[in-house]
Design goal:
Blueprint: H1 2-11, H2 17-39, H3 42-49, H4 53-59, H5 63-88, H6 100-114, H7 116-127, H8 132-153, H9 157-176, H10 186-191
């Protein structure tokens, strides 16, 4: 019996702290995306990875630090998407009126439809910006992403402004599960009708 226990201990592999940290950040992206900073217990993230809560705090000094690591991971993921989109863009094969910014935008749209966690953690990050430390960190991540796109694309400031404005438009639309936010689009006109079929106050005939 003792021999068997000894053999089990010697064959069991110890997971490096760096791998545990990475797994905790990935789990945190998912959990914080759904529950936000204040609505997500650290113990839930710990259980997802199969560790005890005290171990989480041995790697991250606080819940806020873990949240910031998850937010940073989401911005890094978007930066990698933009890098890949730029690298795969070939002007000789591209459709007319398509440039490198549009190629990066297509990669981003695909992420919004295939990995909602990275969309929602962005919204949770902005929502938590009432906290000064989080606000400073999110500002840094956002500015770093803007600079990254500028380097990849070589675009001027006006084009970059349009790119990020449209990206925020896409974020809001994707969060609500719609494809269009135009004032006259079908779903907005339908939602703007008050109960009983009457137009909402101020709506023209």
């Amino acid at each position: 019996m003792a021999t068997s226990t000894t053999q089990t201990k010697t064959t069991r592999q110890r997971v490096p702290a760096s791998e545990r940290r990475d797994a905790l950040i990935e789990a945190a992206v998912h959990e914080f995306a759904h529950g936000g900073l204040h609505g997500t217990p650290v113990d839930r993230i710990a259980r997802t990875v199969g560790v005890a809560q005290p171990y989480v705090f041995s790697l991250f000094g606080s819940k806020k630090e873990l949240f910031l690591a998850a937010v940073e991971r989401s911005f890094e993921h978007v930066a990698e998407l933009f890098t890949r989109g730029a690298e795969e863009f070939d002007p000789a094969l591209a459709l007319p009126d398509t440039d490198v910014l549009k190629a990066m935008g297509h990669a981003y749209v695909e992420m919004l439809t295939t990995n909602r966690d990275y969309l929602m953690i962005q919204h949770q990050a902005y929502a938590a910006c009432d906290d000064e430390a989080i606000r400073d960190h999110v500002r840094h991540c956002y500015a770093t992403l803007v600079a990254h796109v500028e380097r990849l694309s070589g675009a001027d400031q006006e084009a970059l402004d349009d790119f990020f404005r449209y990206g925020m438009w896409l974020n809001v639309a994707a969060a609500m599960g719609v494809e269009d936010l135009s004032v006259g689009c079908e779903w907005i006109r339908a939602e703007a009708v008050a109960p009983g079929g009457a137009p909402t106050p101020g709506e023209s005939d």
